[in-house]
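Bumping my old thread because nobody answered last time. Still need a sequence for this structure:
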């Protein structure tokens, strides 16, 4: 039997396409405020948006003649004909926002149009509309109350309060980034944050908490305009949360453009790291379809391949120019003025002339997103010129050699803690065949402040000091966490650290977990924490980085028992002796003894080797003996 659905059911089903969660309401109302020409937008949410969502703006306001159309479906002031879909230049255009929101909540709208002297209060409760006069300055205040109360099933499937609040913050911050000329005042469940009008780069730094010196500006203006900022390769980012894309200032989710950026970085990026970027594309509206998703969060370009290659080439070019500039500036800094003395670069197997030629002539490859599904697939299909790839590696090595010469005690960049599969209790490792007596510790020494060299009766042994120390602390922290004897060590001076608002939300929710693993953390203000104590036995060099890596592991289903190895690996990485630390002889001997006591002395928690052994027999062959 086929049933004809009632208008009420139809509206609630249609609302589900637009209003998926409280963050969807915030998105639609912010867009309305932007379209109204507001330069001050105030946002408030209570009980993760289910009790109240309030958006106040100083825009043009709503004219009284339009009140009767406010909550009708397919009613909009943004377009009037099908031709208008070819030149959309506003945030909203579907005419579904207020109608969809009203279907799943109670709404009050206080508004005064700029051309009218009196304001009005419009209420939409249970499908009934009432209008009364009120006092209000120019602009609009929209109050959405009791969201999903009339659809318990929808409310039941909302995520945790923390997750919904983070979703609201993420929506708001995307518009905060896109419109630095607008002042945003935000209050979400007692967290208050104000973003005054500012320059784009200042707004980016405020939102991402990445300092200005870590950003590279890009600007392209040809058949379309692309501008924004991308992070320097040396700025390690371990997730994709700091990747923002805007098309005609509309926040957009797109899979191919981040791939284009990643391909543009190429070998400039370390493994397991991502580029951060805030990228704006301004394009003729006729060249892009904004109407492919009910929430306008996805788009389709008319020529996806062209956009991909333009972005890839822009990123590649600015990185090469930066690298070229860095090399020249570095050489200029270390070349004394008015002398002919130049730096002696270590291992100079790549000349400046070759480097310049590489920057000019590196082979370009092109990508068709319709035929490949990932960056790695693109790279495998592109079949890069072997010489070009060789030159890329040598150019980067050349640049690093110069840097190493300037700063002899170079510290190895930290590597993201992998979700290691090592299980020191269940896996059988190859045990060291040597005993303590086999090693000649009387003649042990350190080279390049990075490697330990010693000998046995039959070989020379080279040990990576950071990997060895990391392995020892990894096993130490596993025992420490499993024993649940989590002693703390108080800091002589408490550390105050600033995080993003979303990160503070995660930290606050997981304070009990931090306490379980030995941290004493307090939240102060809206975006700062204070660390009073850390787990016993740790010696962190960068508290912020440790906390960031730990909160990156937390999720709604986080289980401390199942995550001990990941947490141990994170703490070990940041406690271990660094690559570049000078060591005294007694410290070297202590490290060797600690390594020999490990269950697995052969690889660090990330799988890198620790020990490299050269048998004397092999040496003798090298010397033709």
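Sorry it took so long. Here it is:
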């Amino acid at each position: 039997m086929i049933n004809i659905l009632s208008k009420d059911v139809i509206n609630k089903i249609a609302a589900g396409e637009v209003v998926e969660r409280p963050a969807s309401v915030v998105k639609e109302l912010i867009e309305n405020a932007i379209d109204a020409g507001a330069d001050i937008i105030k946002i408030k949410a209570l009980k993760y948006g289910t009790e109240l969502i309030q958006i106040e703006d100083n825009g043009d306001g709503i004219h009284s003649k339009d009140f009767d159309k406010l909550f009708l479906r397919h009613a909009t002031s943004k377009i009037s004909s099908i031709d208008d879909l070819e030149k959309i230049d506003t945030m909203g255009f579907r005419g579904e926002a207020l109608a969809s929101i009203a279907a799943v909540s109670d709404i009050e709208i206080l508004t005064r149009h700029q051309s009218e002297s009196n304001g009005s209060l419009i209420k939409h409760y249970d499908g009934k509309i009432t209008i009364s006069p009120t006092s209000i300055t120019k602009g609009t205040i929209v109050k959405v109350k009791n969201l999903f109360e009339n659809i318990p099933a929808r409310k039941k499937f909302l995520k945790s309060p923390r997750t919904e609040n983070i979703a609201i913050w993420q929506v708001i911050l995307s518009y905060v980034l896109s419109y630095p000329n607008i002042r945003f005042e935000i209050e979400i469940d007692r967290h208050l944050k104000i973003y005054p009008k500012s320059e784009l780069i200042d707004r980016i730094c405020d939102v991402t908490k990445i300092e200005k010196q870590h950003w590279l500006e890009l600007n392209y203006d040809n058949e379309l305009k692309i501008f924004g900022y991308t992070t320097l390769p040396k700025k390690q980012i371990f997730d994709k949360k700091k990747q923002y894309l805007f098309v005609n200032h509309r926040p957009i989710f797109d899979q191919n453009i981040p791939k284009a950026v990643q391909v543009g970085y190429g070998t400039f990026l370390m493994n397991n790291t991502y580029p951060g970027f805030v990228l704006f594309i301004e394009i003729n509206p006729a060249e892009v379809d904004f109407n492919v998703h009910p929430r306008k969060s996805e788009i389709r370009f008319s020529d996806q391949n062209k956009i991909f290659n333009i972005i890839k080439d822009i990123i590649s070019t600015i990185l090469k120019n930066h690298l070229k500039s860095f090399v020249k500036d570095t050489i200029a800094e270390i070349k004394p003025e008015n002398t002919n003395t130049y730096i002696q670069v270590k291992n100079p197997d790549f000349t400046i002339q070759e480097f310049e030629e590489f920057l000019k002539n590196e082979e370009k490859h092109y990508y068709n997103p319709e035929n490949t599904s990932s960056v790695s697939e693109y790279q495998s299909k592109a079949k890069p010129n072997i010489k070009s790839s060789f030159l890329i590696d040598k150019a980067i090595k050349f640049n690093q050699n110069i840097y190493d010469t300037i700063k002899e005690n170079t510290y190895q960049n930290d590597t993201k803690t992998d979700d290691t599969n090592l299980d020191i209790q269940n896996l059988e490792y190859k045990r060291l065949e040597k005993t303590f007596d086999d090693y000649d510790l009387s003649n042990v020494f350190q080279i390049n402040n990075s490697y330990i060299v010693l000998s046995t009766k039959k070989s020379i042994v080279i040990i990576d000091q950071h990997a060895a120390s990391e392995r020892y602390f990894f096993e130490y922290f596993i025992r420490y966490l499993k024993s649940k004897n989590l002693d703390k060590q108080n800091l002589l001076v408490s550390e105050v650290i600033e995080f993003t608002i979303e990160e503070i939300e995660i930290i606050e929710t997981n304070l009990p977990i931090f306490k379980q693993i030995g941290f004493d953390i307090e939240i102060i203000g809206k975006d700062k924490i204070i660390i009073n104590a850390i787990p016993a036995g740790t010696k962190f060099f960068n508290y912020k980085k440790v906390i960031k890596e730990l909160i990156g592991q937390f999720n709604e289903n986080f289980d401390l028992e199942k995550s001990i190895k990941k947490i141990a690996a994170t703490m070990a990485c940041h406690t271990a002796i660094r690559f570049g630390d000078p060591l005294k002889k007694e410290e070297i001997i202590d490290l060797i003894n600690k390594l020999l006591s490990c269950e697995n002395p052969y690889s660090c928690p990330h799988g890198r080797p620790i020990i490299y052994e050269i048998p004397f027999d092999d040496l003798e062959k090298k010397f033709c003996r």
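Confidence is low (pLDDT under 50) at residues 334-347, 362-367, 382-390, 402-436. Let me know if any region looks off to you.
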